[in-house]
Amino acid sequence: MKKNTGKPKSLFLDDANTCISTDLYQLTMIAGYFEHGINHKSTFELFVRDLPERRSYLIAAGLEQAVHYIANISFTAEYVKYLKELPVFKNVSNKFFNYLEDFSFKGDLYAVPEGTVIFANEPIIRVTASMIEAQIIETYLLSIINYQTLIASKASRVVFAADGRKVIDFGTRRAHGPQAGVLAARACYIGGCVGTSNVLAARELGIPPIGTVAHSWIMAYGDEYESFQDFHNVFPDNTVLLIDTYDTIKGAKLATKIGMKLKGVRLDSGNITLLSKRVRRILDEAGLGHVKITASSDLNEYKIAQMLAKGACIDSFGVGTEMVTSKDTPALGGVYKLVEQEIKGKVVPKMKLSKEKETYPSKKQIYRFLNKRGLYKKDIIGLVDEEFDAEELLQPIMKKGKLVYKIPTVKQIQKTVEKNMSRLPKKFKDLNCKTAYPVTISRRLKKVMEKIKSGHIAF
Amino acid sequence: MKKNTGKPKSLFLDDANTCISTDLYQLTMIAGYFEHGINHKSTFELFVRDLPERRSYLIAAGLEQAVHYIANISFTAEYVKYLKELPVFKNVSNKFFNYLEDFSFKGDLYAVPEGTVIFANEPIIRVTASMIEAQIIETYLLSIINYQTLIASKASRVVFAADGRKVIDFGTRRAHGPQAGVLAARACYIGGCVGTSNVLAARELGIPPIGTVAHSWIMAYGDEYESFQDFHNVFPDNTVLLIDTYDTIKGAKLATKIGMKLKGVRLDSGNITLLSKRVRRILDEAGLGHVKITASSDLNEYKIAQMLAKGACIDSFGVGTEMVTSKDTPALGGVYKLVEQEIKGKVVPKMKLSKEKETYPSKKQIYRFLNKRGLYKKDIIGLVDEEFDAEELLQPIMKKGKLVYKIPTVKQIQKTVEKNMSRLPKKFKDLNCKTAYPVTISRRLKKVMEKIKSGHIAF
């Protein structure tokens, strides 16, 4: 335990402390495995048991940060000392702590590329490594993949609802802490947003940073028009004005006085659908047909679809809270389960039998079948060595601890999502999820499960 | 924009990059203020407009990380260069960027101590500084305070529902990214949890790290009892066994064979209320009355209250997803609004007039009145210089950029919450929020608002 130095703590993560950015039981279990010489080659798969409510598909995201973590995990002396002194470890031998000091991940990692459309029970990541190496990474891996996948999926729904109009991530202030804001910006961009208000994410990832102006700017002035002029003065090519501080219609009329260089206006309160039509008319009548209207104010995919159905004149949507917290379904229940072990040269499939939480055993692959028009038709979850006339979604990412995969840029991933979403038939994109995409398991996988259940395979 | 080096990116925050961990418009606005010489002494207040659904109170949290940020914010040459090269800043003078290189926060900060019970519209933080200094910190401040306050409040409900039984944070894997896991662990502990599974949070903050064992441990063995024995072997004083991997009742019976040194068992699936009673009997009949039963599996305050009402024999609850995402209401709408400026020596109150989003002007204080038994009776939000026979909740934290407040440990904050919750009458703790705590605004504050609305004060 660190002593209280009276200095406020940052609670930042870094490459040194991620080794203990995990659940205690991962560390006690690996100590237990070590002490009992249990370190068989083991395979774990990360998947989502059931699609969350109101989701008919997921967009896989977060692999880049997962790989960063796995490629860099190590235990410096400082952290080993901390663990050694925890009472729970008092019966654990020094050998274990020496092992930790030399620890690095030397296993294999397979994953679906970021931006892949996935469904329930489909492995997003497959890890084959010594039991200890595979176990230790569980919690961090889940926390990265669960969140980014949740948000990329939500963003793709919002972008779908916006039907060709632009969507911008404005969510940083409501994300679950500062790092969540950055991760959300990444996932939203992957899901199809055109940019983010988060400058750090923009810089790190090459996402366009986008912003307008806040009410405090307008309120810092006695006069609304003076505030507009002064803003235009400093940002002549980026004059997007917030016009609802006092009265949206009056604000719109004042904004037109900026003239042809006005780039856009933002509506942030009131009946935005109605106001957008009136503001559009005011702009058009002033000869400012090129001026864009941005809307914000607790938007989500449902509201956006409704606004557009009612003929709202909106060119871009600034979406925050609802997108970066995935507010209608704010957690993704990804799990990471042991599916196979090699014991004395023998491959032993593993599965959890408890009724509600049964898992599929063995190393698996997702086989995706396309129809004649190249659209997604159905998936089969099968064993890795099956041969189907289908796309195989899991690809090698790391071999023996080394990266064997070219990490794409977020721009490339966004393109992948665009392409994939165009191949997902429209009925599966319905915001109310009326139709489930067909996913079955292969005959061979079924057989393995039957053998385990009937006791023909020890597990 | 950073070039893609092909190296996977961590997306960690640190003391250098927090300066741009903000919304772009904060940076454009401060550039605008700078260029127009607008840098009056200004006061902003951070508050929550409406309590979220299903919440009748909030527990303020996150001040320590907010203070860390404010005390350390600076712009290194690297970040100034990045901003300078953004096209949006092309008309901004070099003087502004020189100003940024010398930037530090030199203002005053008032806040309610972490662990304070607060309600809608009550200022949690009040910042008085130059307009630029006060503006630049908005987004980061909100992202810290919104999340930790959301989670401390949720945790306090879960702890209330557990009615004296222990609650442990198990949520890291479902929190919104790795840092959210650490921040959640802190907020949950503040809210009354006895510990966390998050080892990094435990180390940084001195919170007890708590863990049992996962299904993968049991599944790594062919034989369930052998897995129990081996675990006990390495952790003789911390043997808490997960007994539901195959069959909870059989698992419980096997666990009793460990004998008197068995510390606890964990139930993670099935009808936990029913199973807990049967398991309790099995343990008691084996003479293991001291062995504790822990329950987990998507628990929340509603389920816990229901389980206990039905007589569940549970000593501690491991709560994850629902607590760390505040799943029933996953975002807190904290805002940060300009309330006052000093212009040429004259104090000018500021308020936003738009109907739905009206704000209260002027520097404010929360006055909390106690009844004869020392319980919370009502709050009045008033001007800072009013005199009431009441507790004044906002306290000085920083003056002229220097910390003037002793940052408490999380243990101390937890004690504060305990004391405060004991002073909040029980009717306001009802999980279904049937009664609203009385909060009004003072006559003097009302007068200021009336004067502004009638145009007697320029604003």
From TrEMBL, chains A, B:
Pfam families, alphabetized: NAPRTase (PF04095), NAPRTase_C (PF17956), NAPRTase_N (PF17767)
Enzyme Commission identifier(s): 6.3.4.21
UniProt keyword Glycosyltransferase present: yes
Domain Nicotinate phosphoribosyltransferase N-terminal residues, every copy: 21-146
GO-annotated molecular function: nicotinamide phosphoribosyltransferase activity; nicotinate phosphoribosyltransferase activity
InterPro entries reported for this sequence: Aldolase_TIM, N/Namide_PRibTrfase, NAPRTase_C, NAPRTase_N, Nic_PRibTrfase-Fam, Nic_PRibTrfase_pncB, Nicotinate_pribotase-like_C
Domain Nicotinate phosphoribosyltransferase C-terminal: 387-448
Stretches assigned to the Nicotinate/nicotinamide phosphoribosyltransferase domain: 166-366
GO cellular component: cytosol
GO BP of this protein: NAD+ biosynthetic process via the salvage pathway
Pathway info: Cofactor biosynthesis; NAD(+) biosynthesis; nicotinate D-ribonucleotide from nicotinate: step 1/1
Keyword field: Glycosyltransferase, Ligase, Phosphoprotein, Pyridine nucleotide biosynthesis, Transferase
Catalytic activity: 5-phospho-alpha-D-ribose 1-diphosphate + nicotinate + ATP + H2O = nicotinate beta-D-ribonucleotide + ADP + phosphate + diphosphate
Keyword Ligase tagged: yes
Source organism, top-level taxon: Bacteria
Posttranslational modification: Transiently phosphorylated on a His residue during the reaction cycle. Phosphorylation strongly increases the affinity for substrates and increases the rate of nicotinate D-ribonucleotide production. Dephosphorylation regenerates the low-affinity form of the enzyme, leading to product release.
Record PANTHER family: NICOTINATE PHOSPHORIBOSYLTRANSFERASE
Protein family per UniProt: Belongs to the NAPRTase family.
Biological function: Catalyzes the first step in the biosynthesis of NAD from nicotinic acid, the ATP-dependent synthesis of beta-nicotinate D-ribonucleotide from nicotinate and 5-phospho-D-ribose 1-phosphate.
Identification of the protein by name: Nicotinate phosphoribosyltransferase
